[in-house]
Structures are given as structure tokens and as C-alpha cells.
Amino acid sequence: MCECSDGWRAGDTMPRPVEGEAVDPIALEPVDEVVVTSLMENVYDGLLPDGRYVTRAPLDRGREPAAHFVDGQAVVGLRAEHGFSVLVTVRRGARTSTLLFDAGTSPHGIVDNADRIGADLSAIEAVVLSHGHFDHVGGLAGLARRLPRAGMPLTIHPFAWTPRRFAFPDGELRFPVLRKPTLAAEGFEVIERRQPSLLFDGCVLVTGEIDRTTEFERGMPPPHQAWDGTAWQHDPLVVDDQAIVVNVRGRGLLVVTGCGHAGVVNIARHALRLTGESRLSGLLGGFHLGGPAFEPIIAPTVEALSALAPDLVVPGHCTGWRAQHALAAALPESWVQGSSGSVFRLTA
After folding, report:
1. What are phi and psi for residue 86, nearest 5 degrees?
2. Does the residue 128 lie in any domain?
């Protein structure tokens, strides 16, 4: 298994293993089906069609009172935020299990969208957070009031509590920081893990820290900083970044990222090394390729992902429109537009 360094502080350099370094494979049990339901995305498009792997939420799923219409209702569709959240349901035989991966930005966003599309939040058995940035954890407040039971396990990296900010020449943007005691009081059982772990009888892998092996995925630019207890330091790694992985029987791995701060190619290759699998069936989530700091690495990222030949690619959240276009052009049979309320399905 991947061994991760202890005592990391913002600004430190994480050990860089050799590309393709051998690890003891983690026995990730194959599943017969995985269903990923998008509870929150940066975009909502009510006119997107269904496809081979995706079913779209009907435009009229969201309605609100509006007296100026004859029937007293406005069709509002689903919410979109600068945030990310999905329900992941795995089926092996007759048994299904569901987890929530990330929670969007606002306290009510994912709950409202779940209600509008009829997603059953009471089916959630576990919560996993990709990292501590506010646009992936804000919805926990609203979810807490809908928890099916007390003691809901919530898996998180121990550095997700780190204060962070963007420091610009003309000011700063400080990120809201999670409070562990509040989560516990709201009914979550907080489980801090740096190394890989398995959920649902070995059917879902939480990667823990990601090996950084590519030369081009170098992380966040200098304005992204973390508080190390004494001072603000450049935080390129966002070392708490992690993903979840499911092995679809006969097809290979589905990898779901939050922002992909570790680098989406690093994440995909890390998942393959951890499990000993050779095939990538799907890649879904934020690829963090938007903006001037990341657009220069779009080309090598697209080249590396094309070589992995996934069946399904759903870049979302922080991927950026230039990367979306590049991926759509390079992988026209695999690329699918993300949108709040969409349901993606891979079956053995």
C-alpha cells in the first residue's frame, strides 16, 4: 500500500515516488453496477439529452410558487453552484450501498436538488470528502438535518481542517474552514485517514493521499496559501485531496474526483496502481484545468487521458471550458457534459 509522509506542513515538498512504482494491490471487490447521481455541479442544462451512460433530469423537476403564471408555478429546474457533490451507489448481486461524495457549496443546494429529482438521502450510509475546500463541504449543514441516523461515518483527510486563502496583491479571499466539533455535534462520526481505505465490504476505495508522479501536474499557484500555525505559506499540493474508486466487473475502474488538485492523471494512474487494474472505465468529477495557471497543462493531460482510453469521461466543476472542448474533441465517444441532476450508470 502507498505509504504517506507524516508531519506535512503547508509549503513542504511531498515525497515523489518513481512513476509506476510497485505497490501491493488493494483487493477492490468488483461490483455489478455503479450509479453516480450529480447532486451539484457548476452548470445545469435542462435541455441535455440522455445518452448511453447518462439519464438527465427532466426540465420540470424543479418548481416554485409564482403568482404571475396561470397555474401559480414557475419551472426553475435544478440548482447549480460553484461546487461539487454526487451520490455513488454500488450494486453487487442483490445488495446496494450508497455514499455521498462531497457536499457542494451552500447549506441547502444538494438537499434541494435531491428533493427535486427524488434522490433518497435516507439511503446514504457514509460520507466521503475529497478535501477541505468550502465548495465541497458547505452542504453538510443542510444534510445534517436529513441524516438517516446518528453516527454517520464521514471519511476525511486530517489536513482538511487547514485554514486556507487566496492572497492577491489587492487583498485576500479566506476560505470558510470546517469545524470538527460541529460536525460531531450534527451527527457525523469523523474518521480521519491519510492512507487508502475500503468501504462497503471492499466495494469502494477511498484513495487517501495521491502519489504525485507526472512532471506537468504541479498543483496550485502561489496565491493559494495555507496557515501552518505560524504563518501563511504557499500550498501547492492540497495534500488532503483524495478520490473514490469503484471496480466495475469486466470493465475496469470508475474514478470520481472532487477538484483533482493532485492532478487528474496522477489520480487515475494512482488508482490503477493501487488496485492492480489495467483498465480505466470511467473518470468523473473536477479536473481543475481552468484559468491561466492550469490551461498550459491541458494538452499533456488530454494526451495522457486519451492513452488510458476510458469509456466515460465527465469533466465537471473546476475543469474549465477550454479543457472541456479539448477533451470533447480528443475523446468524442467518451466525453459527456456534466449537469446537476444527471445520473451516470456503468454496468458489468
Report:
1. -140, 150
2. yes
